[in-house]
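Entry 14. Ran structure prediction on the chain below.
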Amino acid sequence: MPAEYGWGPAFTEYAAKIAVEFAGAQQEGEALWVAECGGRLIGSVMLCQSGEAGEGQVRLFLVEPDYRRCGVGSALMKTVLDKAKELGCTRLMLWSAEPLTDAIRLYECLGFHITERVKNTEWRPDGDPVYEIKMVKECL
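Output, structure tokens:
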């Protein structure tokens, strides 16, 4: 995904740090789901604690380009929403980025709304900004 959007090593390091922290200190109620097709990993998503009471965080949601708009992302997100509800979360939040239009459209269809927009000049090697957006879904 980084190359797809012109993002460089800084983004890869950021995503890897999230994954390593999750693997090393997974807390109760946190989970990782993957989607496979023919033994190939085609998507993933994590449900983590956000640090706020009653709030979960969706992290590292990814669907490979050839499998987008085929229901893979919807199925992964439905799994996250169901688990968050089962755990008693009353709110979910996530961070995305403006170039991820398909993901943002899916989040909006699922009831998430944008609450914050932050300029990031670290992810692209050329220094051009990427706008990160925070999205929230209330009342699961």
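The chain has one domain: 3-138. Will compare against last week's run tomorrow.
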